[in-house]
Design a protein that fits this description.
Blueprint lengths: L9 E3 L24 E2 L5 E3 L2 E3 L6 E3 L2 E4 L1 H7 L2 E6 L4 E6 L15 E3 L5 E7 L2 E9 L3 E4 H6 L9 E4 L5 E4 H8 L5 E2 L9 E2 L4 H13 L2 E4 L2 E12 L5 E8 L2 E13 L5 E11 L6
Parallel strand pairs: 1-6, 9-13, 16-18
Antiparallel strand pairs: 2-5, 3-4, 5-6, 7-8, 10-11, 10-15, 11-12, 12-14, 13-14, 17-18, 18-19, 19-20, 20-21
Organism: Paenibacillus roseopurpureus
Keywords: Signal
InterPro entries: Cu_amine_oxidase-like_N, Mao_N_sf
Length: about 280
């Protein structure tokens, strides 16, 4: 048997795409049959640590090809696949808790003006995003970081009422390149909740919001307009940003688990506290 050449270089490429994504249906003219070798005896070391890949390296034309999704996980990146365009996206993972450079005095101040939440598609995945239309379009920093967009060196602005940090669309164009986030048409929800996937909890939160959209107290009509709900680190606790008759409030909502008659777990709002964040500012 001909001796295989040594590992001369590594190409991080989806040669083993079947291990990461659906094969799909491809036109005959884009396929090319090649002879390659699986080398389970090859060792892979990432950042000084030996790792055991589920799928061994594949050797073709004197190059080694590794399963992109597995390797990306060890490199601290995420991999997304868009079937319609046959595109693999490798995105750097940004720690949402990383400190922001500078101090409060370095931030320009903006105020909430026509804020709205929506889902946006970016590099193969969909994300909830809060957008504020002040003197220009601003994106909330925590949402941008969740999308894997690095904001090092970009100018930040602090919102007056919520004290949350934002980045202008003009600044973000410097790192978006030719593929900015787009409004998602596949994932539309009238109430955007970040960080929560449990259907029972989402149902309880939406029910709570809906029952307070229109209230009439002593001939005074109160119209509530939801902006966004954010899941907090405390279990079953959420921060709810809204307006009542155009005035901004933040409500902390706590869910309580309950057991239904059919022994299934459900949730109800156990408590809520409302704060006028616009008062005195």
């Amino acid at each position: 048997m001909k001796k295989m050449p040594k590992w001369s270089k590594v190409a991080i490429f989806g040669a083993l795409m079947g291990t990461c994504f659906g094969a799909g249906v491809y036109a005959q003219d884009v396929l090319q049959r090649v002879d390659a070798y699986l080398r389970s005896d090859y060792k892979v070391v990432v950042n000084g640590q030996a790792i055991q890949l589920t799928n061994p390296p594949l050797i073709y034309n004197n190059s080694s090809y590794l399963p992109v999704k597995e390797l990306a996980g060890y490199l601290g990146a995420t991999v997304n696949w868009t079937e319609s365009t046959k595109t693999i996206y490798v995105n750097a993972r940004v720690n949402p808790n990383q400190p922001t450079e500078g101090n409060q005095t370095n931030y320009s101040e903006i105020v909430l003006q026509y804020p709205y939440a929506q889902f946006m598609d970016y590099r193969g995945a969909t994300y909830p995003v809060l957008v504020n239309m002040a003197d220009q379009t601003y994106y909330r920093l925590v949402d941008v970081q969740r999308m894997g967009i690095r904001t090092d060196g970009l100018r930040k602005a602090k919102e007056k009422y919520t004290e949350e940090l934002y980045v202008s669309e003009a600044e973000l164009r410097n790192v978006w390149g030719n593929e900015p986030p787009q409004m998602s048409y596949s994932n539309y929800e009238p109430l955007v909740v970040t960080g929560e996937k449990d259907p029972a909890k989402l149902k309880a939160l939406k029910s709570f919001v809906d029952q307070f959209r229109y209230l009439k107290i002593n001939d005074i009509v109160i119209m509530s307009n939801p902006i966004i709900l954010d899941k907090l680190t405390e279990e079953n606790t959420y921060s709810y940003l809204l307006t009542d008759n155009g005035h901004y409030y933040r409500t902390t909502i706590k869910l309580t688990p309950i057991t239904n008659a059919n022994s299934t777990l459900d949730y109800s709002v156990g408590s809520s506290s409302k704060v006028d964040i616009q008062s005195g500012k």
